[in-house]
Request: fold
Amino acid sequence: MDAYAKLDDEEKSRVVEAARNVTTKSEMRQIVEGLEQHFC
Reply:
């Protein structure tokens, strides 16, 4: 969640929208890993 806290409002909105469209656990894992790689 540290990575999410570092995002600006627009980026947070995109992450939330992507998370809403997730249908599998692996898709959610990919979102979280992407955040960690780019923002931590």
